[in-house]
Write a structure and sequence with these properties.
With 174 residues, this protein is an alpha/beta fold. It has 4 helices and 10 strands, in the order E-E-E-E-H-E-E-H-E-H-E-H-E-E. Strand 5 and strand 6 form a beta hairpin. The N and C termini lie close together (7 Å).
Length: 174
């Protein structure tokens, strides 16, 4: 699974879940921004995922979401909305297992140009770029995308708006 791990730090508590903030970033055309990640030593083992990463120090999830978005995409002009989804996941990446508690925040922007500004060493070795996807493109994609039901979740979000409270997604173990 990812450069989703997207950090050079092992900031998970001993025996606990790494706290992660992710961003479901939509542009004025309701396209979602996804990053293309791969195993550091195997670019053919790739997937798409939302910007985000682990909390640092005492920062809040909201602060982490905005920081990670700026570092990974260069986009700072965003309106951060509510938490849409929460997910627990576990996956192998870069020679270790990552156990994460992820919160997905809705955000909107009018800025569509992306430029990574502060990638960690691991991210530089495992993030290949970014792309804006329409919901239709996402639903027809043959590539691996995380979370796995993202096309369906995005369609519901666009059709119904944000949920009243965060929706707990199925646990994903890869």
């Amino acid at each position: 699974m990812p450069a989703e791990a997207s950090a050079g730090h092992d900031d998970s508590p001993e025996g606990g879940l790494r706290k992660v903030a992710r961003v479901v970033l939509l542009d004025p055309e309701d396209r979602i921004l996804l990053l293309n990640g791969h195993e550091p030593d195997d670019p053919a083992d790739d997937w798409w995922f939302t910007p985000g990463g682990g909390l640092e120090g005492e920062e809040t999830r909201e602060e982490a979401a905005l920081r990670e978005l700026a570092e990974e995409t260069g986009i700072t002009e965003v309106e951060l909305g509510p938490v849409l989804w929460r997910r627990t996941c576990s996956f192998p990446f870069a020679g270790r297992r990552w156990d994460q508690d992820e919160w997905y925040y809705l955000a909107r922007t009018t800025v569509t140009a992306t430029r990574a500004t502060a990638l960690t060493e691991l991210e530089r070795r495992s993030v290949a770029g970014a792309r804006w996807w329409t919901c239709q493109e996402l639903s027809q994609a043959h590539e691996t995308v995380y979370p796995t039901r993202l096309a369906e979740l995005l369609r519901r979000l666009l059709d119904e708006g944000p949920p009243a409270g965060p929706v707990t997604l199925d646990t994903e173990i890869v």
